[in-house]
Amino acid sequence: MENLLRPLIVVGGSVVLTLVIGWATDFLLRKADERHHETPLWGLLRRGRIPYMLVLFAALLRGSYDEADLLPSRDEAIGRTLTLVLIGSTAWLVIRIAAAIVETSYSRYASARAHRDPARVRRVRTQVTLIMRVVSAIVGVVAAATMLLTFPAFRAAGASLLASAGILGIVAGVAAQSTLSNMFAGFQIAFGDMVRIGDTVVVDGEWGTVEEITLTFLTVHTWDERRITMPVSYFTSKPFENWSRGTPQMTGIVFWHLDHSAPVEAMREKLRDILRECPAWDGRAYNLCVTDSTPSTMQVRALVTAKDADDIWTVRVAVREQMIGWLADEHPYAMPRVNTADAILPPSRNGNGHRPSQDGVPAQQRRYHGNHSSGRPER
After folding, report:
1. In a designed cystine with 216, which of 138, 172, 182, 345 is the match (CB 3.0 to 4.6 A)?
2. Are the CB atoms for 336 and 297 separated by under 8 Å?
3. Global pTM?
């Protein structure tokens, strides 16, 4: 009877204590989160309750398993398994705690500077993201190494592994040259302030927003809902446009190809009226002028300003659409037209050296008469 009750008491007691301590800890964190609304730390720490309970259960069961005498022939295997679970859950808990602390610090910083210096906030966010990935990788490597050291065979081979570490490092460095270059490029991006999460960039002709940055790749969310994944080494080796660099204010250009008779001065006044009614225009500047001319049309260019890349796009499409509609309604003669005239045929001479005539008018003279004398069709 004692042999049956002892394992039940040990295992059941570990489970009950784990549940009680875990519930009590979660209750205290929830109360602290309700009292301190100014910081999200306590709410974020609650995300670690699962690894926390695993640590409690593994530690309690590992410490009392020898007293249970459940499977004496498997004591060593079960004890090592519990040790591995304890190490793994501890690493998981450490990562969750570090993430909660780092995210809380970033939230306080972002709330204080979001309106004054948004570019700086995006830079800190990028650095925090990469730092958390590095911390997670370091904790994972340390946990894996600690797990391996629980096996006697690995401890015995430790000396030989250390002795060959130099050769293995050289071989691994040559084999993973591109991966290592991307990792170093990731650190350079994080702390060199080249590109940040939330920046508007143009890469390979694609316009979008930086959505994610890791140590090896970067994801750009394009305006048409696509995701472009690129190695971070691209941004350290090739030129790209960063519209969020420095001040986010931008100047946009709108072109029209119009007839030479287009009312340029009236277009300037209409541009002013359009911009005054456009909420995306920041009011800094605008301009309209003729920038080029061809035999059939002239090129009119408008310059407009906005506070960022999203608003400049809105201003440009609004100006382009409303100006074309206004010209079509009020000044249709300003729209580009295709000039037409009679085709000049190659000479087909008769016996006296003249082309055949129609209605008594020689062909050489007839093309200068009628509705097409001006080179335009009859209106």
Report:
1. 182
2. yes
3. 0.48
In sequence order, the 6+-apart residues with CB closer than 8 A to the CB of 133 are 214, 215
CA dist list (Å): 20 to 94, 185, 204: 21, 47, 57
Greatest extent of the chain over all pairs of C-alpha atoms, in Å: 137
Q: Which two tokens stand for residue 22?
A: 């875990």
Please tell me the distance from the alpha carbon of residue 322 to that of residue 339, in angstroms, as a whole number: 26
Long-range contacts for 116-122 (Cβ within 8 Å, ≥24 apart)? 118/248, 119/196, 119/244, 119/245, 119/246, 119/248, 122/196, 122/197, 122/198, 122/199, 122/244
Q: Which residue has the tokens 């049309």?
A: 297
Amino acid letter for position 298:
M
| pLDDT tens series, the chain, 379 aa | 555 566 677 777 778 888 888 888 888 888 888 887 777 888 888 888 888 888 888 888 877 766 656 656 666 777 788 888 888 889 998 988 888 888 888 787 777 665 666 666 777 777 787 778 878 888 888 888 788 777 776 665 544 544 454 544 544 444 444 555 666 666 677 666 678 888 888 888 888 888 888 777 888 998 888 888 888 778 877 888 887 776 778 889 999 999 998 999 999 999 999 999 999 999 899 999 999 998 889 999 999 999 888 889 899 999 999 999 999 999 999 988 776 656 566 665 554 544 444 444 444 444 333 333 333 333 3
